[in-house]
Hints:
The protein has about 170 residues and is of the alpha+beta class. The protein has helices at about 5-55, 60-70, 80-95, 125-135, and strands at about 100-105, 110, 115-125, 145-155, 160-170.
Amino acid sequence: MTLSPREKNLAFAVGGTVFVLLNLFILSAFSQKNLALRTELAQQRLEWSNMQILLSEQGVWADRDAALTLKQPKMTSESAAGVELLDTIRGIAKTHSVSLQNEVLGGVVDNQWYRSAPVTTDTHSSWPDLVAFLYALQKPDQFIVCEAVNIQQDPSDATKMIGHFTIARWYAP
Length: 173
């Protein structure tokens, strides 16, 4: 069976179109794979760079770990830890004119890096007094942190702030 010139041209056009579409499909797949490999390579280079930085700063991190081990307090009594923290919070609040309400002691929480003795309390004060209270409360050597904070303006007095805090002292594990 012989093809007419018109059929030959049509066959070449269909074959050429199939060839071009197949090449576009293959090139698209190669392009996507190339992009995925380049992204993975960039991520691995970034991880390698971060590992090199951590390795070069190994002495700094060892010194920081030693300082934390030396300075972070040890929990002597689980029942007294919350009470001691609450007394500390009350003393700091008193010096900064912050009134405490609804004080609740939480149970000791164990973590991989620290043990936590939380206290939940509400505060009522002016904004500058609250900032001074939080600054005095969270000094680095005290290992006291605000784990949860909700501060709002007092609806009855625009110069006052109402806060709901979960404050904890972190002890060595």
